[in-house]
Amino acid sequence: MELKSSAFKNNEALPTQYTCYGQKMSPPLAWSGFPKEANCFALICEDPDAVGGTFIHWVAYNIPRDVTAFPENGPIAGSMGLTSGHTAAWYPACPPKGTGKHR
Q1: How far does CA 46 lie from the centroid of its chain?
Q2: pLDDT of 11-22, one tens digit each?
Q3: CB 98 within 8 A of CB 52
Q4: How far apart (Å, rounded) are the C-alpha atoms in residues 30 and 66?
Q5: For strand 79-80 and strand 55-64, is the pairing parallel, antiparallel, or unpaired?
Q6: Residue 40 in contact with residue 65, Cβ under 8 Å?
């Protein structure tokens, strides 16, 4: 299975518009190459670069099998779970200024 974003490449810095310093939008995502037996999908967006340890920015589940992309800034198909910021929506990254790359 492959997950991609048209807004950034794997291990690239997260563009500002998806952070607390920008528009706080959720990034566009698309997935492919999943098993034909899949009934639904789940997405967990973890931030390995967070100062206090891994931070969960996004939890979506019960995403219907025929949904293979999330557009920039939603709407999101399926159910939303709680992030580390205690919200049931995209929680934008907010890396401390001057800390370098934030993937």
Answers
A1: 8
A2: 888 888 998 999
A3: no
A4: 12
A5: antiparallel
A6: yes
* Residue 95 · residue 22 · CB < 8 Å: no
Tokens representing 96 are: 């401390």
| Rounded distance between C-alpha atoms, residue 82 and residue 91, angstroms | 10
Strands (E), 48-97: 55-64, 69-70, 79-80
33, two tokens: 């190459």
Cis before 71? omega within 30: no
The two tokens of residue 100 are 């370098």
Q: What is the pLDDT of residue 62?
A: 97
pTM beyond 0.70: the answer is yes
